[in-house]
Prior knowledge:
Helices cover 89% and strands 0% of the residues. The protein is mostly helical. It is elongated, with a radius of gyration of 25 Å. 8% of the residues are buried. The model has no long low-confidence stretch (mean pLDDT 88).
Amino acid sequence: MPCSLVATSLLAAERNDWLPAIVVGALLVLLGGWFLRMHLAAWRAPAADHTLGDTERRHYRRQFWRRMQASSLIALIGLLLPAGDQLLRPERVSQAMAAVFWLLVLALTCWVLLLAIVDIIATRSHSQITLSRIQQKQMALNAEADRLRS
Length: 150
């Protein structure tokens, strides 16, 4: 009885083997679209702030483009997963063509990871510089307050 249940499950999974690719692909497309929308909304504040210096504006512009690129690639990968799963079946294309396609998808995924790492490093560096400036201003204000008190 258990063997027939396993065999039936395997046959059912074989008939519905497209489902995981569709689900994961759809989730990635939705996630990428949501990220794009969030980055556009977040960009409006720095884009409209005319008090920002050139360095700050450049940082936010680069951050915006990095994040838009990564989010777009996430959505693209979400489209490529089910498309590749359906179109690149062994009976339809050569193994070499399928391998090249999946290597390109892997390269896109690595590029998204690289963009994420660069974004983390850039954001951390920018935050540390900004915090240092704030601390310097705070020390200057404290010194001025001490001078005025005495």
